[in-house]
From TrEMBL, chain A:
<feature type="transmembrane region" description="Helical">
    <location>
        <begin position="107"/>
        <end position="125"/>
    </location>
</feature>
<dbReference type="GO" id="GO:0005886">
    <property type="term" value="C:plasma membrane"/>
</dbReference>
<feature type="transmembrane region" description="Helical">
    <location>
        <begin position="80"/>
        <end position="100"/>
    </location>
</feature>
<feature type="transmembrane region" description="Helical">
    <location>
        <begin position="374"/>
        <end position="397"/>
    </location>
</feature>
<dbReference type="Pfam" id="PF00361">
    <property type="entry name" value="Proton_antipo_M"/>
</dbReference>
<feature type="transmembrane region" description="Helical">
    <location>
        <begin position="297"/>
        <end position="316"/>
    </location>
</feature>
<feature type="transmembrane region" description="Helical">
    <location>
        <begin position="28"/>
        <end position="50"/>
    </location>
</feature>
<dbReference type="InterPro" id="IPR050586">
    <property type="entry name" value="CPA3_Na-H_Antiporter_D"/>
</dbReference>
<keyword id="KW-0472">Membrane</keyword>
<keyword id="KW-1133">Transmembrane helix</keyword>
<feature type="transmembrane region" description="Helical">
    <location>
        <begin position="268"/>
        <end position="288"/>
    </location>
</feature>
<feature type="domain" description="NADH:quinone oxidoreductase/Mrp antiporter transmembrane">
    <location>
        <begin position="125"/>
        <end position="421"/>
    </location>
</feature>
<feature type="transmembrane region" description="Helical">
    <location>
        <begin position="131"/>
        <end position="149"/>
    </location>
</feature>
<feature type="transmembrane region" description="Helical">
    <location>
        <begin position="448"/>
        <end position="470"/>
    </location>
</feature>
<feature type="transmembrane region" description="Helical">
    <location>
        <begin position="194"/>
        <end position="218"/>
    </location>
</feature>
<keyword id="KW-0812">Transmembrane</keyword>
<dbReference type="InterPro" id="IPR001750">
    <property type="entry name" value="ND/Mrp_TM"/>
</dbReference>
Length: 486, 305
């Protein structure tokens, strides 16, 4: 069986699982979900191992080929993110299996599988309109997951998220239709070939980027994120912060590079970097002010997205080595943030289960009685702060090198100050757990499965620092993105 | 001249919808806006979109909104934020200006997709280009779009935790003998219309989405007259009906892989028949999904009561 024959199963199986889990009784739903989780993990691993090292793969749906039909494309980047999705979604799925009440599960699984299918579809998509459909599927599944259970505060956060996501979709769709009007194709490969720069293309790309920025929650369009990510059920928060917002960023960065924007709009790139700095400082500052644990973690996501925005100015450097380092560091940052943030949200959920309340003050005494959960939270925190030897450290190291080579020293300051600020708000959480309490306080004990899922993800974000050469080699595999970067 | 009138009508209706404090009146203006938009689509020579706008954008959406409004305690007064509306109008105007400026300088398309489409139309199994694009050339998009529709239903159903099987709905909603009597006249006509829209889709405007919306309207009218569909069929059967279109589409899509083809490749001799089969199942499912979205509201109210 070749990689190309394996590829469609990454879409068919989650979609089939979404239907099955919508129909079967609870027990059968759980068993079939476990089976499909296993098969997805296996399929994405095999795809990564069989990835040819000389050229990207193209899969023509319906055998029509571009521009008439839709073509899926698999390069190193897509393969790496398929693997990332499998890893994180599997662990969040396992976590949900024991975290969610039996009454919540029938609602959860169909949405979970649609979410996974949408993510796989977006990593693989090679067509602008197909990306729009993928984004719709992803946003609606995410909104449904936030609102799961119908608690008033969750529905409110979900509605806010829905409006932001729809506005983002509208912007993206308008931009896509303008691009189609100017070039006559929706296929990304063809578009990059015939792309010509003009007022229409500029306006189209501005609309697309603004729409995607709203969906990714880039500062200052981030206000929908904290209530949605902090208010959702724990496994949902992890999925949302780790994977969902990354999908729209992935589309934005791919378009930016493949349509050769780094040379065309130096000012816009610097502006995006400035917004990134704003995200780092504002998100960090807000995280310091929060009194609830999951709110701290959610604002930390707002802040960490700032690092991803810093890639744009770093890519615009005249030296090709600097832009290469920036793209490598950026993708690694995305990967390590995904692992660390998923681990941190799951660990935070466990801590809240232990303490029984979601306030930071309730964590007092936990470091003595439930050290394993604190340890998982701590490992994820190390990666988020960017301390060696974590994945976050390797990513920041590459970005710092890129900033040095391209002579944009001001971004070095921003990266370092951002790290300091993240250390501040994360240590603030720890300081609460080391407070001593009266011995009368009773702590709950989350099940072993919950603790293991959180610990695995957090440990992986550290291990990423040791094994960084692997993902970096996948990112550098030939493909439309690496070719456009030169 | 007509176009100018239509545009002015659109603008004034949109503004009135935004500025009316009475929710019911705002809703009526919104529905009128949708009807006018249908005319605009016809003027733009896009009858498929006009049909979809009339059936889905105005018809089903309007019914859903009206039904939601009915459940508010009183006729809710919307608070009209003057500053927000100012910003909405301002940004709408500036976007319009930017768009028209950019469109005036639109270059010629380097790729003529419409010619490729016409050349390949015979191989698609249908003769209406839009159906060919939706169900053959870009069938993957349509497959995922049906997924979006299903997802909307699942997300709505996820709003309440399912401790025990859903209660059966009570029948009569409106005790209106006139409605009942006229429904007896309309129902066969609506079913005929749905079938015609579906059948016509192969060679002229129409298709599964429009036919499904008409079917949903028939179901909703029946439901309002007390002939509740879901009181007569079990919840489980209803759920199978909701899923059957998507599942059949997925099965047909992947069965081509048995023959060593890529996903969604129809055998060329059977393409027309397969598309009709998929559309038939889709029409049925879309009708049921839209209908279920409508009854969802009632189930939730019942639970909270």
């Amino acid at each position: 069986m070749s990689s190309l024959a394996l590829l469609p199963w990454l879409l068919i199986l989650p979609l089939a699982a979404a239907c099955l889990t919508g129909l079967l009784p609870l027990r059968a739903t759980q068993i079939s979900s476990l089976l499909v989780i296993l098969s997805q993990a296996l399929a994405s691993l095999l795809l990564l191992l069989w990835m040819p090292s000389d050229e990207p793969l193209f899969y023509s749906l319906g055998s029509w080929g571009a521009p008439l039909g839709i073509v899926l494309r698999l390069d190193g980047l897509a393969a790496a993110f398929l693997m990332m999705t499998s890893l994180i979604a599997s662990l969040c799925g396992l976590y949900a299996l024991s975290y969610l009440r039996p009454s919540q599960q029938p609602g959860f699984w169909p949405l979970f599988w649609f979410l996974w299918a949408a993510l796989n579809g977006i990593w693989l998509a090679g067509d602008l309109f197909n990306l729009y459909v993928g984004l719709e599927l992803l946003s609606l599944a995410a909104v449904g997951l936030v609102a799961l259970g119908g608690e008033a505060s969750r529905v409110k956060a979900a509605l806010r998220y829905l409006f932001a996501a729809l506005l983002g979709s509208l912007g993206y769709l308008l931009g896509v239709s303008l691009l189609y009007g100017a070039h006559g194709t929706l296929d990304l490969e063809l578009l990059a070939e015939v792309f010509h720069w003009g007022p229409l293309s500029a306006l189209a790309l501005a609309l697309i980027l603004a729409g995607l920025a709203l969906k990714t929650a880039f500062f200052p369009l981030h206000t929908w994120l904290p209530p949605a990510h902090a208010g959702a059920l724990t496994p949902v928060s992890a999925l949302l912060s780790a994977l969902v917002i990354k999908a729209s960023f992935y589309i934005a960065l791919r378009l930016w590079v493949e349509l050769e924007m780094p040379e065309r709009s130096l000012e816009v790139a610097q502006l995006l970097g400035l917004l990134g700095a704003g995200a780092l400082f504002w998100g960090g500052w807000m995280a310091l002010q929060q009194v609830k644990l999951k709110q701290v973690v959610a604002y930390s996501t707002v802040a960490q997205l700032g690092y991803l925005l810093l890639i744009f100015p770093l890519l615009s450097s005249s030296s090709s080595e600097a832009s290469h380092l920036a793209s490598q560091g950026g993708w690694l940052m995305l990967l390590s943030h995904a692992l660390a943030k998923a681990g941190m949200f799951l660990a935070a959920g466990n801590l809240i289960l232990c303490a029984g309340r979601s306030e930071l003050s309730a964590l007092a005494g936990l470091s003595r009685y439930r050290p394993m959960n604190i340890f998982a939270f701590g490992l994820a925190a190390v990666s988020l702060m960017g301390l060696p030897p974590s994945g976050g450290f390797s990513a920041k190291w590459l970005m710092l090198q890129s900033a040095l080579i391209s002579g944009q020293w001001w971004w070095i300051l921003v990266i370092l100050l951002g790290s300091l600020l993240s250390a501040a708000y994360l240590f603030r959480v720890f300081s609460h757990t080391y407070l001593e309490t009266q011995d009368s306080v009773q702590f709950g004990q989350p099940s072993l499965m919950l603790e293991l899922c959180a610990l695995t993800l957090a440990a992986l974000s550290i291990l990423l620092g040791f094994f960084a050469p692997w993902p970096l080699a996948w990112f550098a595999l030939p493909g439309p993105f690496t070719e456009a970067l030169g | 001249m007509i176009d100018l009138l239509l545009v002015c009508g659109l603008w004034s209706l949109a503004l009135t919808t935004l500025l009316t404090p009475n929710a019911f009146r705002a809703l009526v203006f919104f529905i009128l806006l949708g009807l006018l938009l249908t005319l605009v689509w016809i003027r733009l020579d896009a009858p498929d979109i006009a049909l979809a706008e009339a059936a889905l954008g105005t018809g089903i959406t309007g019914v859903l909104l009206l039904d939601t409004l009915k459940q508010q305690p009183q006729h809710a007064l919307l608070c009209v934020h003057r500053t927000r509306i100012f910003w909405a109008v301002f940004s709408g105007l500036s976007l319009t200006l930017a768009l028209s400026w950019a469109l005036l300088q639109a270059p010629a398309m380097p790729i003529a997709l419409d010619q490729t489409l016409t050349a390949q139309l015979d191989a698609s199994g249908v003769s209406h280009p839009i159906t060919a694009v939706l169900l053959n050339f870009r069938a993957y998009d349509t497959l995922l779009e049906i997924g979006v529709l299903l997802l909307a239903l699942f997300a709505g159903q996820g709003l309440h935790e399912r401790q025990h099987p859903l209660e059966q709905l009570s029948g009569a909603q409106l005790h209106n003998p006139f409605l009942r009597a006229s429904l007896a006249l309309w129902l066969p006509g609506m079913l005929l219309l749905a079938t015609y829209l579906l059948w016509a889709g192969a060679h002229q405007p129409g298709g599964a989405f429009q036919a499904g919306a008409v079917l949903a309207a028939a179901f909703i009218l029946m439901h309002l007259c007390g002939l509740a569909l879901d009181a007569q069929v079990s919840q489980h059967l209803l759920r199978i009906g909701v899923l059957v279109g998507f599942v059949l589409f997925l099965v047909v899509a992947s069965s081509s892989m048995l023959a060593g083809q890529t996903l969604l490749t129809y055998p060329s001799a059977w393409a027309g028949e397969l598309i009709l089969l998929i559309e038939l199942a889709l029409t049925f499912s879309i009708g049921l999904i839209l209908f279920s979205l409508f009854t969802l509201n009632h189930q939730m109210r019942k639970e909270s009561a």
